[in-house]
Amino acid sequence: MNFFPKTLSLAVLLLMVACASVPTPPVAPTQPPVVEAPAPKKIPKLGLALGGGAARGFAHIGVLQVLEEEGIKPTLVVGTSAGSVVAAFYASGKTASQLQWLADTMDESQFTDWANPFTGRGMLRGEALGKYVNSQLNGMKIEDMKMPLGIVATDLRTGDGILFQRGDVATAVRASSAVPSVFEPVRIGGKDYVDGGLVSP
Question: Going from the N-terminus, what domains does the chain have, and what CATH number goes with each?
Answer without folding.
Answer: 47-198 (3.40.1090.10)
